[in-house]
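Hello support,

Our group uses your service weekly, and this is the first time we've seen a run hang past the timeout. The protein is glucose-6-phosphate 1-epimerase. I'm not sure whether the cause is the sequence or the server load. Input pasted verbatim:
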Amino acid sequence: MKLSQAAKTLPDATNRAVQTRRHSMADLLKAATGANPVSRIAEGTGKGGLPVLILTHGSGAVCEVYPHGATVTRYTSPTGAEVLWTSESAVFDGAKAIRGGIPVVFPQFGPAADARVGGPGTMAQHGFARTAAWTVDAAGTKILDSGDPQAVLTLADSAATRALWPHAFACSYTVVLQAAALHCELKITNRDGPEAPPFSPQCLLHTYLAVDDVQRAMVHGLDGAKYVDKLAAEPEPRDESNPAIRFRGETDRVYLGSSRESQPLTLRPSGSRLDCHAVLLDAADTITAEFDADVVVWNPHVDKAARMGDFDDDGWTKMCCLEPGVVAADRPSVDTNGSLVLSQTISPEL
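Update from on-call engineer: The timeout came from a worker crash unrelated to the input. Re-ran successfully.
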């Protein structure tokens, strides 16, 4: 079974804006306005002078992706609601990770090895992918036959990355702006030689979701799962007995995919829904295993937010992180020329 089928390559740049179709949202918009909505992709200059890709759907949804860190910094629904949170104090200097949106975490979760979640070694917090210069794949960045704009960014190992993590790899990150959802897919391929053992990277889509007031927010879909509380001293996982997770203080938990039910996560009262999934592929891109992603739930609360220079002092009240990933100690290994694929689809309430 193939994970996906490549869309036909559009012949020239004039085809980068085509009429959306087969989406009820676009049909409703056309009926209401008499307009013929189109999707488009534009290259622009973003904050700090950094290049940015701007994806606009015919439904009215918008997404912005910075090649710096392959970071999605903005996603607005067709009604104009901001679905993601990005700090007003975020630094856009091409060196520091962008605070907010959806940073890509790879190949390590924490700054040091952690037996509770199986960190592979010592390197910068959350690895190097979120501060790397990713390359825009011109052939893959296009309007799909469905009318959805798609951006594809790539990252490969270098002498600098191998000094931090001694493996050869190829990453591709695909962002598809749908009529009423945002789909993100990270593919990590093992390019070590045939005699090398499998590798076991960690990865996360570090998703900052916008909320009106985090103290009223509730996360549904993790009841019954085991989790590691990274703020607690004891190493043993706990059982989540609450039907909804609330934010009453600093929160930093890793919910183990192997223990949770296959169901979407829902953030109330905002209504955002997050579907996440992970698979292993062989060298022919055939699925060999499917499994539930781990989920990190994080909010810094007042004291930690104040200690972070790129985090608005009151920003913690306006966000919570629901981060699908593959970070647990029992995560799978990836064979040479095989791949690990982590995906999420964010569907805001319209």
